[in-house]
Amino acid sequence: MNKLTLITGATDGIGKFTALQLAQDGYSVHILGRDKAKGSKVLETLNKLNPLGNHCLFICDLSKINEVKRFLNSYLKQNNKLDVLILNAGIHPKKLTISEDGIDTTFSVGYISRYLFSAKLNPLLEKSDIKKVIHICGSIVGKISYDKLENPTYSKLKSVWQNSIGSAILVYHWKKLLNTSVTHLHWNPGIVNTQTVKSQSNLIQLLSKYFGMIEPKEAAKKIAAIINSNSNELFYKNGEGYNKIPKKIKSKNELLRLISFSENFTEVYINYKISI
Q: The organism sits in which domain of life (predicted)?
């Protein structure tokens, strides 16, 4: 039986090239995105790379909680195991918007959907020998402004950083929180030459190259290497593990606030195995 991976945000950039890399490595690849046309092209390439992979395309708007729930409930019925979950979907908005559920759309896609995928798919991942979840994230800077999520007046950059903070807290505490064998990893690729970078000014693109920008294909190879690694590191930057984790990520108070918000907002509750 082929190993199975599910990748969000897999119709372009890092997600797309990671899907192609894992198909070449023998995985059955399930890709998820919003753009059916782009997704169909990726699926076609996957089938050429690994014709026996039984690859699938799923269309879902990750900014909508009920749509995400419907997808996950359906996915649980259709599959009895998942080896690797890659949470790559995220947006870098030109302006901040409010989701149909009433909060910053960037946070809905970049964190709330990741909480839902992590909570709902944990039973499938526990049945695997690999059982890894990889959060593709940016820098861990600042704190989550819970009181401003419904009316975001913070910067676009902060809106992206908040997702990374939420993911980092889940990554650090997940195993003990649920007493689970599923490992979560926080992977910051550095600067990658995705459409987000290509849409910037020539100066920004030049500076990106100066600061070591890599291509999505190279990022995908690094992700594949981490999946196959036996390292105990949970946090990675530019493909290298590190263990100098900010105190705010280790804080049980920050964890409690994040989980409380996540549960109340999504109405998806996790069964704590330890006191937090």
A: Bacteria
